[in-house]
Amino acid sequence: MHRLGVDIGGTFTDFALVDDATGALTVHKQLTTPSDPSECVIDGLAGLLRQTGVAVSDIATLAHGTTLVTNAVIERRGAITGMLVSKGFRDVLDIAMERRYDLFDLRLQFAEPVVPRNQRAEIAERVMFDGQVEVPLDEAEVERAAVHLVERYGIEALAICFLHSYANPTHEDCARDIVARRFPELRITTSSEMLPFMREYERWSTTTVNAYVRPLTDRYLDQLETGLADMGFTGHLLVMTASGGVVTPGIARRLPARLIESGPAAGALMAAFLGERIGEANLLSFDMGGTTAKGALIRDGRPLRRYEFEVAREHEFKPGSGLPLRIPVIDMIEIGAGGGSIAEIDAHGLLAVGPRSAGADPGPACYGQGGGRATLTDANLALGYLVPDAFLGGRMALDAGAALQVIDGGVAKPLDVETGRAAWGIHEVINEDVARAFRVHASEIGFDYRRCAMIAFGGSGPAHAIRVARKLRIPKVIFPVGAGVMSAIGLLTTPISYATLLSGRIRLDALDQAGLENGFAPVESQARDLLCEAGVAAEEIVTERRLDMRFCGQGHEVEVRLPAACSVGDLTSLFLQTYAEVFAATPIDAAVEIVNWKIEASGPRPDFAERYRPFSGAREGAETLRTVRAYRDDTKAFGPCPVIDRYALAAGRRIVGPALIQEDEATTVLGPNDWIEVDAYGNLVATLAQGDEAS
User: Fold this and answer.
1) 409 Cβ partners below 8 Å, 6+ apart?
2) Which three-class secondary structure string do you get for 445-497?
3) Which of 82, 186, 458, 658 could form a disulfide with 155 if both were Cys (CB 3.0 to 4.6 A apart)?
4) What is the C-alpha separation between 217 and 234, in angstroms, rounded?
C-alpha cells in the first residue's frame, strides 16, 4: 500500500507518495488552482498515478495540508458572518486588549475584526464566572436577532459568544439550537465548543474566525471528497492542523480555524524529524514557497508549540497587530515573502517586495501566463539562479526575456539602475525581510539561532537560505532531499491527534489527587472520543497533560508539562522549575493556582522513520550539467557559475561555491567560498564562509 501527502500552497501544490513496503518516495509539483484548489489536487494525483503506475485503490491514506484558511483570513475572503453576544459586550472585538503594540507609531493600525460591528447583536443573558446563571437567556430575542442578521445582512455563518460560557455553556447551546431550527443552513460556532477559555476577547476572536471560514472550508472539502470518490479513492482522507496532528474531515469542518498554518506545520515537523536523524536537536526551520516564508524554531528535537497565535499581522510582524487565535499551534512566524512576491517602488521612492503576490494565476511574468509585474522569481531568473529549461525538472519552461522586461520597466528604470542590479535588489530585500522577521520571532521567546543549524526547504527556500543564514550568523544550513516538497513529505510523519483545553481556576493548596484527575476528565474524554471517531483504537491513544499555572494575583501564566506519573505533590516543584526557566528569576513567595487544563491525545505515529528512503544513491552521469552566468554577491557582477546535478552527488562529495545545485523542485544557491558536503542521507550540509555579512 501507499500513502500520499498533499500540501496546497498559494502558488504550487506539492505531492509526496511513499511506498509503505519499500520506503520509496515519488514527488510531484504543479500550479495551484486558486478558484478551486481541489482541482489541482485531483489533477496532480492523476498525473502522479500515471507517472508511477500506482492504482488509486492502492493509496491507503491521503494526508492533506492547505493554506486555504490562512489565505481566506488574510485576504478577507470568508463568509458573511454574524455574531450573538452578551448584552453590553458588543464592542469587545474592537476594544481588544486596549494595548498599543507600538507606543510611538502615530499611524498605528490594528487588524479589523472579521465580523463588522453592525453584524453583532446583543442578547440579554448573564452567566457568572462560577457558572451560576444571573440573567436567564431571552430565547425570543435570540430568534429575533438571528432573523434580523439573516434578512438584513445575508449572513452565512454565525458566532455565538456569551460571557463565561466556558464555565457553563447552557445559554450558548440553547441559542445554537434555536437558530439551527429556524435557519438549518447556517454554519454556527459556539465559543464554548471552539475554545472553553476564560478570556473573552481571545475566545470570541477565535470563535468569529472559525465561523468566518466554515462555509468556505465546507465547500472545499465537499469538492475534494467528491473528486476523490469519482477517481475511485476509498482510503482515509486526513487534514493537517496547526498543532502538527491530523484530523478527519468531520472535525476539520466543525473547527476549521485549527487548519490555519496546516501546511507549514507539516514542514516544521519534517524539519524536526530530519534533525533527529542527523543529530541536530536545535534548528531554525526555514520554509519559503511561492507566496510566503515561514520560520519555526525547534528546541531539543521538538517544534515549539503554543496555544496562542496571531494571523494577518498588520505592521512589521509585530505582536499585537494581528487577529489573536487561541488554538494549539506550532510556533512560527509567517510573512508575505515568496517566489511570487511583487516588487514595486513605494510612495517614498524605495524598493519594496511583497507581501502582495502574483500567486499561481497569473503568476510571475516568467511563467508566461500574463503576469505583468516583477516578482522574486523573475529576479532570481534574471540573476541566473534559475535555469529556464530546467524548472520543475523541465516540465515548465521559464521566459527569461519576460522577466528582464518587467524588472527593467517596473524597477530598474524608476530607480535609474541597470537591470541586474535591480534584480539583485529584489533578491536582497526579501532576504533582509525574512531575516528581520526571524530575529523578531526568536527574540520573542529567547531563542539564540546563532547556536543552531538551519534546515531550508520550499520551492524558493534553497535559493535564499545561505544569504539569510549569513545575516542571522547561523553557521550551518541543511538542504534535505526533496526540499521543494518537504511539507508534503512531512504530512506523512504525523499521527492523528487532537489538543484541547478547559479553563478552571483552583489553588494548589485546595487540590487533592481526585481533584487533579477530575479537572482533566472532561477534556481528556473529549479528545479520546474524537480520536475514536477518527478510527483510532482506544488502547492506542496516548495522552499528554499540561497545566497553565501562575502565582495568585498574576495576570498571565506559564505552561507546565506533566510527566506520565504525576501527583498533586509534584505540581509546585514542576511549576517553580518552569517559572525559573521562562523568566530566569527567583520565584516569589506566593500561593500557586491552576488556570487552564490541557490535553493532547494522539494515535500511533506512522512507521515512517524506518522506511523513509529519499535517496537511493548517486545516479550515473556528469555532475556539472552546464555553466551559466550568475550574479555574485562578492563582486556585485555576473560571472561563470557551474550548475551541479543534485542527483549525481554521492555521499561525502564536497563542492565549493559559487555553484548552483539543481534538483527538480528547487535550486540551491551556493555563494562564493561557501562549501557543501553530502551526508549519508543525501542532505546537502552547507558551511558558510567566515566573515561579516555584506548588506
Assistant:
1) none
2) HCCCHHHCEEEEECCCHHHHHHHHHHHHCCCEEEECCCHHHHHHHHCCCCCEE
3) 82
4) 21
pLDDT in tens, 160-194: 999 999 999 999 999 999 999 999 999 999 999 99
Report the alpha-carbon distance of residue 137 to residue 144 in Å, rounded. 13
pLDDT of 695 over the 50 cut: no
Sort 619 into a burial class: Cβ within 10 Å, 0-12 / 13-18 / 19+. exposed
How far is C-alpha 575 from the geometric centre of its chain's CA atoms? 30
Please tell me the predicted confidence (pLDDT) of residue 413: 95
Model confidence band, residue 271 (pLDDT cutoffs 50, 70, 90): very high
Position 609 pLDDT exceeds 70:
no
**C-alpha cell recorded at residue 82:** 454574524
Cβ count within 10 A of residue 629:
13
Q: Can you tell me the distance from the alpha carbon of 173 to that of 194, in angstroms, rounded to the nearest whole number?
A: 12
Phi, psi of 527 (to 5 degrees): -65, -45
Statement: residue 67 has pLDDT above 90: no
- For 207, counting Cβ atoms within 10 Å of its Cβ (0-12 exposed, 13-18 middle, 19+ buried), the class is buried
Task: Quickly tell me which residue has 549519508 as its cell.
Answer: 680
Residue 325 to residue 388: CA distance in whole angstroms:
42
The whole-number pLDDT of residue 466 equals 95
Which residues does 116 contact at the CB level (< 8 Å), separation at least 6? none
Enumerate domains of the chain plus CATH numbers: 2-73+218-259 (3.30.420.40), 77-212 (3.40.1360), 497-602 (3.30.1490)
> What letter represents residue 490's amino acid?
G
Q: For the segment 500-529, what is each residue's pLDDT rounded down to a tens digit?
A: 889 999 999 999 999 999 999 999 999 999
Cis peptide before 462 (omega within 30 of 0): no
